[in-house]
Write a structure and sequence with these properties.
- It is built from nine helices and ten strands.
- The chain has a four-stranded antiparallel β-sheet, covered by helices on one side. The chain has a two-stranded antiparallel sheet with strand order 1-2. A two-stranded antiparallel sheet has the order 3-10.
Length: 343
Amino acid sequence: MSIIIAILIFSFIVIFHELGHFLVAKACDVKVNEFCLGLGPRILHFTKGETTYALRLLPFGGACMMEGEDEESSDGRAFNNKNVWQRIAIVFAGPLFNFILAFVLSIVMISFVGVSKPIVAGVLEGYSAEEQGMQAGDEIVQINGYKVHFYQEISVLSFIHSGEDLDVTYLRDGKAHNVVIEPKLNPETGRYSLGIQGSGAPEKTGFLETFKYSIYEIKYQIYTVFASLKMLLTGKLTPADMSGPVGIVKVIDDTYQVSAVDGVFYIAMNMLNIAIMLSANLGVMNLLPLPALDGGRLLFFIIEVFRRRKMKEEIEGTIHTIGFMLLMALMVFVMINDIIKLF
């Protein structure tokens, strides 16, 4: 069951990403040859107008294949024959649709569940928060310059800044207080802790608050991705800590098993939360200026804007091909690492 749910989540996120490319391509009068879900040989397909819609064998990935996208074409409606701003819009639309999807799903989830605000329910004896005078009822609003809106952000920020002193701002009776907290290693969890506890009980929000907190949710997801990338570059995380499709399926399975005890509603909400995270992650990762990704293509288009002429297609194609091969090698490494961690 978990594998089916994982495939459905992956497929929905990917098809929505490709839908962004597809709709903007159509709006720019670009000929789309094929719109497909999955990779490998076709197992189902039909043609409507000039576009073939296909389902392919491997249930990961997808594509919006446009005329003249990766090869020369004399067709006036080919992708490469459109002006640079139209090409930028078409490529950027994929990641943008991932952020839109994450935002819409956040609205749904928060409407049903509410939000866990960063309000302290209690402080642990012997930890820095107690020593600094924090009390139950304090609302944490900022940590190291990052504005906090959800209780879960506190633990994430503690992990990101493991072993570092944290500059914490909290509100008590409407007045702001600033303290420096030294996280303490919790021997039970193996992670650093501020020594505070939250109620864990989410609060329902009105329409405008739901909209506002959905924006905060996307901000939080984007920040987490960039913070994780920074930790990889600085050595706080290693490539072995990365997870690919196999690792994500494992997370979905674990979450499903835990949620199943509480019923279908909790399964649905937790799967929705995972879908938000994955969609926002895909949006950010695709915007990285790396060859073979949407961000890499956008980088070439931006260079074209300043140079006022295209880069030679064979040079750009070679760079993207090398980038794609390196990306595939990384995916294989991550997949092997995920499989090893299963055992």
